[in-house]
Write a structure and sequence with these properties.
Layout: H1 13-23, H2 31-44, E1 48-52, H3 55-65, E2 73-77, H4 82-89, E3 94-98, H5 112-115, E4 120-123, H6 135-145, E5 148-152, E6 160-161, E7 164-165, E8 172-176, E9 189-193, H7 199-206, H8 212-216, H9 236-247, H10 249-272, E10 285-286, E11 293-295, H11 299-311, H12 327-332, E12 333-335, H13 342-346, E13 349-351, H14 360-371
Parallel strand pairs: 2-3, 2-4, 3-12, 4-5, 5-8
Antiparallel strand pairs: 1-9, 6-7, 6-10, 8-9, 11-13
Helix pairs in contact: 1-9, 2-9, 3-4, 10-14
Length: 378
């Protein structure tokens, strides 16, 4: 069986976890947490990076820092993971879903303005597959209507828009280091922002509502409960696992990009023949080879192809069920405008195996199975 995903492992993870134990500080904000944050600040030109227990929690922090109140509205695509919406629903917001571009599966920026009301507070672009949304247009709309922008860059770590790292363009960026991502700490994430004015509030929120961060910097002689907060700090052992991968980011990127290129090159004849559609990456975007997907004719064709590949020992999966069609989506949100592409394109898309430790012979076998699919050889 060729798995769809396996958590990345580069070799130094266990050594660094042992070092974390030897340092004697396994709770949040230890030595490896600091190293991970500094690495991202340097490589992504991000002024503030706070490691979190998940991207979900980073999104929750962003929603709080945006001062979302009950009745506020937040605009996002329906084609995304539940956490994108949940983070704002927990604050009492109404989610307003808009359609996507059929090629990138990203939010259609031309649909955003029509969804804005006097209750709108935030726009949430989701950088699907590590391919950037049209951020210039989105930021211009946000500026025109005085809205915040929270980038859901869960899949966009080390991907770029016109040379700028995803997650560093909006008011807040949210990263994921889940085991399915390019760089992993098992469960984890990060909140990224550039404006110093959010630092103190973000630190207090992340530290259970205390000013403990100031205490550890020696700015106060004791810390106390000062505001609302929760525990969003990951263990330093998790950060140690992640740091081994950040150090090896170039090696991970090269391997994933090689897999992506192999799929793209060897499946192109099927695209040229009209059997499948391949991913599209706009000129302004530098993707991170987070995933390789293809699209077939419709839901029936996808179900049949996934079943055929599983019979051959290849595990492929589809992705999100659009949120607006779920029970919670109907309860907490509404779709603005026409669902021209969200549902239709979501039913056509399937993801191929993609992970750092995937063997080349397995990639070749995946492609061989797809090329030999009887319905592609009529």
């Amino acid at each position: 069986m060729i798995d769809f995903n396996r958590p990345p492992f580069v070799g130094k993870e266990l050594e660094y976890i042992k070092q974390a134990v030897d340092f004697g500080k396994l709770c949040g904000d230890g030595e490896f947490t600091r190293r991970c944050s500094n690495w991202m600040m340097e490589h992504f030109e991000a002024k503030h990076v706070l490691l979190t227990t998940s991207c979900t929690h980073a999104l929750e922090m962003a929603a709080y820092l945006c001062q979302i109140q009950p009745g506020d509205e937040v605009i996002m695509p329906s084609y995304t993971f539940v956490s994108t919406a949940d983070a704002f629903v927990l604050r009492g917001a109404k989610i307003v879903f808009v359609d996507i571009h059929p090629d990138t599966m990203n939010i259609d920026e031309t649909k955003i303005e029509a969804a804005i009301t006097d209750r709108t507070k935030v726009i949430v672009p989701v950088h699907y597959a590590g391919v950037a949304c049209a951020m210039d247009e989105i930021m211009a709309i946000a500026k025109k209507y005085n809205l915040k922008v929270v980038e859901d860059a869960a899949q966009g770590v080390n991907a770029y828009y016109k040379g700028r790292a995803l997650g560093t363009i909006g008011d807040f960026g949210c990263y994921s280091f889940h085991e399915t991502k390019n760089y992993s700490m098992g469960e984890g994430g990060a909140l990224v922002f550039q404006d110093d004015k959010y630092q103190e509030a973000a630190e207090i929120l992340r530290e259970k509502g205390t000013n403990r961060s100031k205490f550890f910097r020696g700015q106060i002689d004791k810390y106390t409960w000062v505001d609302y907060g929760s525990s969003y700090l990951p263990s330093d052992m998790n950060a140690a696992y992640l740091y081994a991968q950040l150090e090896a980011a170039d090696k991970i990127d090269e391997k994933r990009s090689a897999i992506y290129r192999y799929y793209a090159e060897h499946l192109k004849p099927l695209a040229d023949a009209g059997y499948i559609e391949q991913p599209v990456v706009p000129e302004y975007a530098k993707h991170n080879a987070h995933m390789y997907f293809l699209k077939v004719k419709d839901l029936k064709a996808r179900t049949e192809l996934i079943g055929y590949l599983r019979e051959r020992g290849v595990w492929t999966v589809f992705h999100y069920i659009p949120l607006h069609s779920s029970a919670a989506g109907e309860k907490f949100g509404r779709f603005c405008g026409e669902d021209a592409y969200t549902t239709k394109e979501s039913e056509r898309l399937m993801r191929l195996p993609m992970f750092y430790n995937l063997d080349k012979k397995d990639v070749e076998y995946v492609v061989k199975c797809i090329l030999e699919y009887p319905k592609f050889n009529k």
